Model the fold of this input.
Amino acid sequence: MRTVEYTRQGDAAQVLTLREEARRPVPGSGEVLVRMLVRPVHPGDLIGVEGLPGQPEQPEQQSGARTPGVEGMGVVESAGADVRAPRPGQRVAVFPAPGTWSDFVAVPAELAVPVPDGVSDETAALMLVNPLTLRMLYRAVEEALSGQTGPVLQTAAGSSVGRLISAAAVRHDLQLINLVRSTSGAEQVRTSYPSQPVIATCDDDWREQVRLHAGERGVRVVLDCVGGAMTQDLAELLADGGTLISYGRLGSGTTPLEALPLMARALTVRGMSILRWTNRTPEERAQDVAFAQDLARNTPDLLEVAADYDLADFKAAVEHARRPAKRGTVLLTTPRTADSGNGAAR
Done:
C-alpha cells in the first residue's frame, strides 16, 4: 500500500514523501475500507501541507505523519460491523475522508456516496467537494442578497468552482461579474459564458470596469477565493451594506481587518469552508449529495480534468496543479489492477 505523507508543514515538493507498507487500514464499526482509484489535488490540500503565511502550525499538527486529501473515488474493499451499504465491490465517492492520497482509506459508510451508473471514475472523483461548495456559496449569496437583486462579483472565475458558479448564475438568472487574472483567461471565460462580463485584473482600470458593469446599485456580494492583498480592493467595490464571502486563499499578501471600512459602510465579511458541510442536517446533506450526483450524471463537462498522474508522481501533479493557466483539476490515480504501481503521468 502506497501513502503520500508529510511530518511538517512546508513546500509540498520538499516535505511530501511516498511510503510503502504491507498493512492496510482496518474498517471499524460503521466504516468501509475503500480502495482509492482517483483523487484530486485541490488548492485546500496544498494549503494543508504548506500552511498559510503568518499562521503558525497548530500543536496537534506538529507530531506524527499526515496524509493529504479529503476527496476521491474508489471501490469498497470491505465493510466493518453494522454496515449494510455500500457493499464491497461498489464504486463510491468519498468526502470528507482525510488521507485520500493513499491506496486505501477507511471512512464512515455514510460518507461513501454511490457513484451513479454512467459516471466515469474521473468525474466521480470530483463529484463532491466543488459541487457541494457551490451549494454552500449559493445559499450564502441568497442570504446576503435577502431577496434583493444586485450584481455579484466573483474572483478566480476561470477556476473549477468559478465555472460552476457561472453555470449556476446562468440557470438562476443571477447578475454575475467575473474576475480573472489574465487577458487570455478572460477570453476563455467569455467564450463559455458570453452573457457575463469578464474583467482581467491585469488591466490597470479593472476596478473602474467593475464599477461600470455594476451600475448605480454597486456590487452587493463578492465571492472571493483569492484573498490576501486583494481583499481591500474588493471591499472598496462593495456597495454600502454589502457582503464579502471568503472561501479560499489563492492570493499573496495580507489585508488587516482594521483596514476595511466595516463599520462606516456596514459591510459584512463572512468566511465559508467546505469542511463545515458536515454540520448541515442529514436531510440537507442528502439534498446536496443528490444535487452533486445529478450534476455529475448530466453535466460532467463542468467537472473538467486538467491531467492525471500516478500517485507516485505526486510532485509532478503538484507542480501542474500550481500552473496559473491550468484549466480543470489535476488528479492522482492508482491502477485498478494492483494495490500499488509506478505508472507514468499521462
Remarks:
- Confidence is low (pLDDT under 50) at residues 340-346.
- The CA atoms of residues 136 and 276 lie 10 Å apart.
- The longest strand covers residues 31-40.
